[in-house]
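Extended Data, panel c. Modelled sequence:
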Amino acid sequence: MQRNPITPAGYARLSAELKHAKTVERPYIVLQIEEARAHGDLKENAEYHSAKDKQGMIEARIKWHEHILATAEVIDITEMPQTGQVIFGTTVTLLDLDTDDEVTYQIVSDYESDAKQGRISYSSPIGRAIIGKREGDEVVVVTPKGTRTLEISEVEYK
């Protein structure tokens, strides 16, 4: 079975989402289905069909969360040797050598990535380019916005 790396915070967030889906959303949709059934003929009951569709989406989301959590390998970066190398979980400050803009990202899993929140996936173009590199290294990254030359200014294990 393939293990999927995830940060402790990402694992906790997905676990909380799964618990909410099972304990709040699932029971609520069951009540909605029961109420819709009480309205009579199910063939022409739009409320019933809508509730059943929502139930299917909730069940699919629950199965997805269960799969991700079952295959997760929680990696706590604070317990890793601080070698200065960019690895999963590190927080990396990058300097765009073309624009002098500086940006800081934490390298996370696909399930946790949110560039606006400063989290990028290790499988993203930037993530793939900087994994294994060290402070002071320069990398050329091909992104949807074009080619960028980045310098790794700082690597933190926090």
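The chain is about 40% helix and 25% strand. This feature is highlighted in the accompanying rendering.
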